[in-house]
Each structure stands twice: as C-alpha cells, then as structure tokens.
Amino acid sequence: MSFLDHIRRCNNADLAQFEPWFVGEHRAGFVHRDFAADALRDSGLFGHRGGAWHLDPRLDTPGTRTAEVRAFLLALRERGYFNGLWREESYAVAPQEGAPLLMEMERSAVPWFGVRAGGPHMTGFVRRADGLHIWVPRRSYEKPTFPGQLDNTVAGGQPAGLGLHENLVKECGEEASIPPALAQQAKAVSVVGYWNQSGQQLKPDVMTCFDLELPHDFTPRANDGEVHSFELWPARRVFETVRDTTEFKYNCNLVLIDFFVRHGMLSADDPDFIPIVAGLRMLYTPRNGSG
Description:
Structural class: alpha+beta
Helix content: 25-40%
C-alpha cells in the first residue's frame, strides 16, 4: 500500500453506472442504474426523464418528502435492502453544504441514493518529549461494519439537526469518555472528500477533520460499545501503519494522511506530495464520470 493507494481506493466510483436524481431543480444524489430499474421504476414516487430521476413534484415541502420517502424505504427494507443496517437515524439531504434542506433520509439508505454524507473525524494527539503520539482506537469486533479495524480517535456520522462541532462533542463522550469541556477544545482544521462506490451504493462524502491536543494524564475510555480498546501510538508508527497496510478503516486513512501533511510529517520533496494533497479534496463531481 501507499498513501496514494488509499486515496485511489476511496475514489473508485464509476459514475457511468449511475444516474442523477432530483428534488425539483436540485440534484439530491445519484442512483445506480440497476437499483433504479428494480426499486424506482414502478414506485410511483420517482419519474424518469432526460436521463435523470425526479421525486414526485407534488411533494413540495421537506416534511412531506421525508414522510413519503420513509414509507418507500421501509417497503424496500421489507424486500431485503439495506443489509440489516437500518439505524433509525436521519441524515439531511441538501444540494450542497449550507443549502436549504430538501428532506431527511434514513442513514442506511443514503448510499443507495448517492446522497452526500459525512461527519466529524477527530485525531486526538499528545505532545511528548520524543514527539507526537496519537490515540488509536480499535473498532468493536461486534460492530456490523468494519469490525476490529483501526479508526480515528473519535468519528461519527452527521445526523440531521446537529451542528458538526456539537455532534463531535457528543461523539467524544459516547465513544471515548472525553468530557464536554475538553472536547469543546477540538479545532476544525480541514475537510477530506471522496467518491467511493461499493456495488450499487455510492458515497460522495465529506469528512470534517478536527484536531484535539489531549493532556498527558488523560486516557480515552470506551463508553458505548463502539470501541474495543484505545492505544497511544507514536505518530510515526501510525504513519507507517497507514502507509504500509490496510489496518485502518478505509476512509480513516485519508483523515490521518491529512494530519500527517498538516503536521509536517510528509516532505514537500516527496514526489507524491502534490497528488496526495490534491487527492484528499475530491469534493466535486468527477468530470469524466469516474473517481
């Protein structure tokens, strides 16, 4: 593996397999052609024209769209969609960050509809005489997704109705027992974007990166069953593990690579420096139809 390999692994989407779907004039996401043929074509909720899918225009408020689409998604769940991962957690559907809310959608359905999602990803680090160290959690072996893999110190999806920093403070308490007064010191420092495809699912996601310098005498502690354990690693060990292995959850590698760049661990003389930095910011629709 290499840093560029991780970036390519996250940006594997072939948009030629997908069609956009719209709420009114706003593109809300993308649906795989096979998924659309099976789930949307005869739904009565989506119409197809001009090479795109359109939500029924009679649904003209966020509330009515949310309710109708939820009923539709529950019917899809009964047919076996969403792989048993239904969360009862709503994500916002909006054409871009900061734009008016179009509707809300169940978290597990979001990648089936190619809706941009994301959330806060925090790197908790400690300064010692021998350099930076990073708190590295191992995901619970009972988690339904990526069990046992290494992760960012604290990370979580972004539910509708919460601010990013507010959500991070909540996740810090739930995942790592970091008290609010300490968690509020985390600083938003960057964003990382990618276009990842898994079968018929598409994740055009943006992760907001936070740094939090933790006291020497503080030890994160698993609180909600999401984390198996925490270990404090020298930053160089984290650097080499990301560079050489696939031990970290696939998208968490990008957050850590961003950390390495910002903290001067990746030389500007490295021949891959510019492609690495540019590759962390895949925020816009790939022009050639593929990530």
